[in-house]
Amino acid sequence: MLVVQKYGGTSVGDLDRIGNVAKRVAKTKFKGNSVVVVVSAMSGETNKLTEYAHHFSKNPSKREMDILLSSGERVTASLLAIALHEMGLEAVAMTGRQAGIKTNDTHTFARIESINTDAMSKELDDGKIVIVAGFQGINRHGRVTTLGRGGSDLSAVAIAGALGADACEIYSDVDGIYTTDPRVEPRAKKLDYISYDEMLELSSLGAKVLQSRSVELAKKMGVKIIAKSSFSDNEGTTIGEEREDMEEVLVSGIALDKNQARVSLRGVSDRPGVAADIFNILAKEQINVDMIIQNASAEGSTMLGFTVPESELEHTQEIISGLEHDIEGAEFDKGICKVSVVGVGMKSHSGVASATFTALADAGINIEMISTSEIKISVVVDEKFAELSVRVLHEAYQLDK
Ligand code: ADP
Ligand code: ASP
Ligand code: MG
Question: Would you say the CB of residue 76 lies under 6 angstroms from ligand 2?
Answer without folding.
Answer: no
